[in-house]
Design a protein that fits this description.
Blueprint lengths: L1 H18 L3 H11 L13 H17 L5 H20 L6 H26 L4 H19 L4 H23 L8
Helix pairs in contact: 1-2, 1-4, 1-5, 1-6, 1-7, 2-3, 2-4, 2-6, 4-5, 5-6, 5-7
Length: 178
């Protein structure tokens, strides 16, 4: 049962890394320090890791507005891999790297599309970035609850499919103009 709970928590934290790549690592370190992550590796519960994770997470979250979309996706993929491996590494070594990288990249692709649309719709770049950082902390905190992480992955997959379908329907009439 610890494996399933750890996978759920790791997957949810990887989804949160799609919103802000390193900020969920601070939530992960806090939860590991409190003993809420049954499959986490030992370094995740160290106090120096907690301080560094929060500091780097806040810095990356603030600078995320300046990064181009492909770099945001790549950094989120790396953050998702780290978060999932730190969460599941004790019960499933090395598996979390692959799972977290895929989930983090998919969540980042979806959130980048949503953020870019919000900015194009009139939102300020820094305001959207601040909202994404806050959402990353909220999603990371929710993913600590067992089995919620699986629901978060399903939700991001649904949002990505819906976003893609919206593009196809939006430009359907332009095919007639050829």
């Amino acid at each position: 049962m610890d494996i399933v709970i750890a996978l759920s928590q790791g997957a949810g934290l990887a989804v949160a890394c799609g919103l802000a790549a390193l900020l969920p690592l601070g939530v992960l370190a806090t939860a590991a320090l409190l003993g809420w992550l049954p499959g986490s590796v030992a370094i995740a519960s160290d106090t120096p890791f907690l301080v560094v994770a929060w500091a780097l997470g806040l810095l990356e979250s603030g600078l995320r507005a300046l990064l181009p979309a492909p770099l945001r996706i790549a950094v989120s993929s790396a953050g998702g891999a780290a978060a999932c491996e730190l969460t599941t590494g004790h019960v499933l070594p090395w598996v979390g790297l692959v799972i977290g990288a895929l989930i983090g990249a998919g969540a980042a692709w979806t959130s980048t599309r949503l953020a870019d649309r919000a900015i194009a719709g009139g939102g300020t770049r820094w305001g959207v970035t601040a909202l994404m950082g806050g959402a990353a902390v909220a999603v990371a905190a929710a993913s600590i609850v067992p089995f919620v992480g699986f629901l978060l992955v399903i939700g991001v997959a649904w949002a990505g499919i819906r976003s893609r379908r919206g593009d196809d329907q939006r430009y359907a009439g332009l095919r007639v103009l050829r």
